[in-house]
């Protein structure tokens, strides 16, 4: 459903991203990993159309640039890493902004807003001003907004999550990844998530994409891409691999 | 705690009606309120119920009524432009006066008053004010954009620099103009509604109607823009087109307001801020309520300008500056506390 072919993004005379081939299919949660400055966020900006690039980006077999803006907004959502709003919208009002590309009756809109706030566990602070929330709470509010934005997608939607767990406590990190996992499984979302915790990638993702210095290094099953050798090579850290007793998950 | 729209709207409309009536009957010559109302009724329906003497009729219909209407229109235009600029810059300090747009427009208007209006006609004043206001807005916007959004520091410094430049340009032009025009220019610079003509009123009314309709159509897009430009783009908003449209419209609004009444600062700063505090930052309600509140504030400021030193009067820009400057300082301190500056 998402295909990148020979995509190159340059700025300031420097190649910031070079991807020969990358695809994401519906129902798949893809973890994007790599050391700092690897080009993970640039990849998101290229896919979301924020940065211009050469090459082909196909979304549901159609060049992404050919998608009308509103249709694209209903099928492609981006969760920003951090967000600040100078004016004191309440959490609920921020989530309601996800209605912008949609056409829903007032009652339906209200129900949808409540439902997505419940899914991301932010209903209990719905009336609080957004600027007064913690980083993690803001991120969950934004997630509810983006999910609402994608709620009228006619084809499988694509969701880009930029470090969705970076500001969350341990419990919320897993809640969010469980939610992402279930969206893929039950609603055929394709999700690309930039993650720094490699354990989470191994545990929740079906696919892993390793980037380094703006280049795509490897794609495949997380346990294969994240070998001790590749971690040492790209993060300059030799991990210890442990086998869990209860599950097949591997902790590094 | 926010006030619901069905509560604020009738209160504002009632206050505006009361302010308008007071503006008609209060001043160097005080008149009974009923006669003020009746004289307007007479003018509209050709009756003769009013007990006012002829000279009092002239005061109400030819001096105070156009002035009151102009105050309402300019107040509404400036408050809406302020609300839109703050949304566009995503900062509550963006007021046409503070960031230099009014000063820029004033230079355009003064050039037209001194050199163009005699040959080209009065229409050249708002057109020239709009052109200069537009150039200033584009300059300030371009300067204030940074990788992390709008830089408040650059926004304010650009305002200082442009106002200084405009001040010097106005001083330079004033130096070479004759005494008669100099007096008019000095008064006009401080903001006044004394010269409100019928043509000016129609022009300001048309501008307000166009601005209010266009802004209201973009209210949802403006809300989305508060999330950030990237986020708005992801929500399907054509951000570049929206920004250009809003910049041109605010420049038209500020240009018309400045050419009609001179430089009147702080209305676009105080009003949207107050409305946000009472009813929230949603532009769908913020924009119309700001227009009403701006009209009301301007009526009150004009009334104070006429009453404080009667039978003489103060330029209305002085009154709004007196109210607005401390408010601006409070906002600045708040922003510093939040680490935005």
Describe what this molecule looks like in 3D:
Chain A has 252 residues and is an alpha/beta fold. Chain A has 2 domains: 1-60 and 155-225, 3-Layer(aba) Sandwich (Rossmann fold); 82-154, no CATH class. Chain A contains 9 helices and 12 strands. Chain A has helices at residues 40-47, 69-75, 91-96, 106-119, 135-149, 170-187, 198-204, 222-225, 228-235, and strands at residues 2-11, 14-24, 29-33, 54-59, 62-63, 76-79, 158-162, 190-194, 207-212, 215-220, 242-243, 250-251. In chain A, the strands form 3 sheets. Chain A has a 6-stranded mixed β-sheet, with helices on both faces. A 4-stranded antiparallel β-sheet of chain A has the order 2-1-4-5. A two-stranded antiparallel sheet of chain A has the order 11-12. In chain A, helix 4 (106-119) crosses helix 5 (135-149). The longest helix of chain A is centred in the last third of the chain and has 18 residues, at 170-187. The two termini of chain A are 32 Å apart. Chain B is mostly helical and 341 residues long. Chain B has one domain (67-337): ABC transporter involved in vitamin B12 uptake, BtuC, CATH 1.10.3470.10. In chain B, 77% of the residues lie in helices and 1% in strands. Chain B has 14 helices and 2 strands, in the order αααααββααααααααα. Chain B has helices at 5-25, 33-45, 54-89, 101-120, 124-144, 152-176, 179-189, 198-217, 219-225, 229-234, 239-261, 267-279, 283-307, 316-337; strands spanning 145-146, 149-150. A two-stranded antiparallel sheet of chain B has the order 1-2. In chain B, strand 1 and strand 2 form a beta hairpin. Chain B is globular and about 65 Å long. The model of chain B has no long low-confidence stretch (mean pLDDT 86). The interface between A and B is medium-sized, with 27 and 24 residues.
């Amino acid at each position: 459903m998402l295909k990148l072919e020979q995509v190159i993004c340059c700025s300031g005379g420097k190649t910031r991203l070079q991807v020969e081939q990358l695809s994401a299919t519906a129902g798949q949660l893809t973890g994007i990993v790599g050391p700092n400055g690897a080009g993970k966020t640039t990849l998101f900006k290229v896919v979301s159309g924020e940065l211009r690039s050469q090459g082909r980006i196909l979304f549901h077999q159609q060049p992404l640039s050919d998608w009308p803006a509103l249709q694209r907004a209903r099928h492609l959502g981006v969760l920003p890493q951090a967000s600040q709003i100078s004016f004191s919208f309440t959490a609920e009002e921020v989530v309601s902004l996800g209605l912008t590309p949609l056409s829903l009756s007032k009652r339906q809109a209200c129900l949808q807003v409540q439902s997505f706030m419940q899914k991301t566990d932010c209903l209990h602070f719905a009336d609080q001003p957004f600027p007064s929330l913690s980083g993690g709470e803001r991120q969950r509010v934004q997630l509810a907004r983006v999910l609402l934005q994608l709620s009228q997608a006619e084809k499988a939607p694509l969701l880009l999550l930029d470090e969705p767990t970076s500001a969350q406590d341990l419990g919320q990190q897993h809640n969010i990844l469980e939610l992402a996992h279930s969206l893929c499984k039950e609603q055929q979302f394709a999700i690309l998530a930039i993650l720094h915790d490699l354990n989470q990638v191994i545990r929740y993702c079906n696919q892993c994409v390793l980037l380094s210095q703006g280049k795509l290094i490897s794609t495949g099953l997380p346990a294969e891409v994240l070998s001790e050798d590749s971690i040492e090579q790209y993060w300059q850290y030799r991990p210890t691999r442990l086998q869990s007793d209860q599950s097949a998950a591997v902790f590094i | 705690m926010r006030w619901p729209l069905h509560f604020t709207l009738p209160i504002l409309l009632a206050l505006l009606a009361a302010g308008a009536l007071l503006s008609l009957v209060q001043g160097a010559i005080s008149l009974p309120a009923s006669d003020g109302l009746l004289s307007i009724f007479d003018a509209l329906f050709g009756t003769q119920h009013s007990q006012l003497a002829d000279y009092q009729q002239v005061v109400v219909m030819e001096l105070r009524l156009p002035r009151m209407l102009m105050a309402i229109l300019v107040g509404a235009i400036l408050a809406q432009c302020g609300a839109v600029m703050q949304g566009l810059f995503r900062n509550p300090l963006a007021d046409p006066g503070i960031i230099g747009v009014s000063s820029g427009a004033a230079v355009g208007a003064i050039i037209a008053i001194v050199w163009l209006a005699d040959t080209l006609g009065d229409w050249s004043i708002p057109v020239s004010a709009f052109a200069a206001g537009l150039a200033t807005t584009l300059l300030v916007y371009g300067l204030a954009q940074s990788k992390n959004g709008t830089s408040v520091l650059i926004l304010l410094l650009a305002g200082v620099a442009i106002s200084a430049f405009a001040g010097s340009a106005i001083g330079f032009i004033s130096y070479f103009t004759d005494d008669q025009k100099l007096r008019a220019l000095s008064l006009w610079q401080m903001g006044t509604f004394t010269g409100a003509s019928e043509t000016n009123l129609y022009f300001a009314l048309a501008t307000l109607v166009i601005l209010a309709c266009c802004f209201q159509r973009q209210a949802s897009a403006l809300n989305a823009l508060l999330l950030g430009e990237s986020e708005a783009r992801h929500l399907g908003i054509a951000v570049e087109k929206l920004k250009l449209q809003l910049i041109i419209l605010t420049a038209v609004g500020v240009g018309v307001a400045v050419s009609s009444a001179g430089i009147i600062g702080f209305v676009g700063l105080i009003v949207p801020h107050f409305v946000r505090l009472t009813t929230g930052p949603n532009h769908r309600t913020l924009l119309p309520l700001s227009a009403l509140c701006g009209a009301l504030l301007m009526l009150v400021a004009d009334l104070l300008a006429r009453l404080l030193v009667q039978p003489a009067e103060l330029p209305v820009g002085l009154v709004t500056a007196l109210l607005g400057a401390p408010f601006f300082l409070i906002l600045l301190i708040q922003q510093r506390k939040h680490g935005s500056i």
